[in-house]
Amino acid sequence: MAKVLMKGNEAVAEAAVRGGCRFFAGYPITPQSEIPEYLSGRLPEVGGVFVQGESEVASINMVYGAASSGVRAMTGSSGLGISLKAEGMSYLAGSHLPAVIVSVTRGGPGLGSIQPAQQDYLQVTKALGHGGFKYIVEAPHTVQEAVDLVYDAFELAERDRNPVFVVYDGCLGSVMEEVELPPMKELPERPDWAVGNFTDAPRARRMVSSIPGEVMLEKQNIASEKMYQRWAEEDARWEEFVVDDAEYVCFAYGMSARVCKYAINELRKEGIKLGLIRPITLYPFPKKALDNLDYNRVKAIIDVEMAIPCQMEDDIALQVMGRAPILKYAHSGGVTLKNEETTAAIRALIGGLNK
Asked: Range of 265's domain?
């Protein structure tokens, strides 16, 4: 299949259409605005519906309605917009509805900066909204990987009847790369649980609700807990980049991981045995990746993020459990990592450790 040159956000939007998305509701916000812009023209071409909601709150509730009818539905936003969607996201989880949510991250907190950042790790992994629910959270580091993850996200969401998050920063949303676009999927039949009457024959009334009563709610929460445990065993994904002999291991996701790969290639020329663990799923967190390291050989873990304070640090520390020191290098607020500066910073961190 021929490759095409596409901007990250537009490639993600096209991947969603090819993955079966037929409804999108959203609100313009930098740096994700190319997603709704693209879908406003593309969805009508395949019989889908695009709605620019009057707000982020309205948009997530429109997704709730579309998902209730069994349509593959999606929304997108950035940090402060995701905050506004939090209540609706909790409703989606509480009603066991599949949907895909894309967060193209920028600097924060507050209005922050429209420039790329990774300051929403805690938001997408720990603070999705009230009620203690979880989503699978995927974090691509190339446009091709973003296409592949979004294309399959609808299947994951329907498998679990639970929304799926895809998160990447504004760099990946804006960069243009060659991608191989997947084929159009055949749309599945409307699921049995969906509301609405889709045949001429009468059928039992169906209801989608997140207020089932306390006894049933507890049963549902117990079932959800088992689902989260299954995710940890079966759905955690990560990449290992020259880790087999590594004495120092970077831990980074998204565009930060790309910068780390550059640093690793440069520092290995100097004899520094540096490797990378790159989470593909931020949730479930890839605990086994850290457990599998040989801590008789690994002298340090280096957390590299576009976030200050580093937001993955606690998750890394809980898994490393003191078996190696955790070093940090970060930029924040839309100040992006740069290849040469990051290489020099990692070299200095390792040098300081060995003094």
From this structure: 238-353
Within 13 A of 167's CA, how many CA atoms are on the CB side? 27
Q: What is the model's pTM?
A: 0.95
* Residue 345: inside a domain: yes
Rounded mean pLDDT of 6-32?
Answer: 98
| Whole-number pLDDT of residue 280 | 98
The secondary structure of 247-306 as a DSSP string is SEEEE--HHHHHHHHHHHHHHHHTT--EEEEEESEEES--HHHHHTS-TTT--EEEEEES
Regarding whether 265 and 169 lie in a shared domain, the answer is no
Q: How many residues does the chain have?
A: 355
Residue corresponding to tokens 């998050």: 165
Query: CATH number for the domain including 319?
Result: 3.40.50.920
**Domain CATH code at residue 109:** 3.40.50.970
User: What's the number of domains the chain is made of?
Assistant: 2
C-alpha torsion angle, residues 200, 201, 203, 206 (rounded to 10): -10
Express each pLDDT in 321-348 by its tens digit: 999 999 999 999 999 999 999 999 999 9
**Average pLDDT value for residue range 6-12:** 98
pLDDT digits (tens, 9 = 90+) for 60-101: 999 999 999 999 999 999 999 999 999 999 999 999 999 999
Compute the distance between CA of residue 149 and CA of residue 146 in angstroms, rounded to an integer.
Answer: 5
Determine the Cα–Cα distance for residues 259 and 282; give it in Å rounded to an integer. Answer: 18
Does 89 lie in the same domain as 51?
A: yes
Residue 279, domain member (yes or no) = yes
